[in-house]
Amino acid sequence: MAKEIEFKLALAPAGPEALRRHPRLAGLEPRTTQLGNTYFDTPDGRLESERMALRLRHADGRLLQTLKTSGQGSGGLSTRGEWEWEVMGPGLDLGRLADLPPIEALGEGVLGELRPRFATDFAREIWWWEQDGTAIEIALDLGEIESDAHSVPIRELELELKDGDPAALIELAEALAERVPLRPSDTSKAARGAALLAGRWALPDGGSAPAWLHRAVVALDAHADTGDAAFREAAREAFLQLAERHADVEPMARRLAEALRHDDWLNADTGRTLLALSRHLPDAVALG
Question: Which residues are in the CYTH domain (predicted)?
Answer without folding.
Answer: 2-200
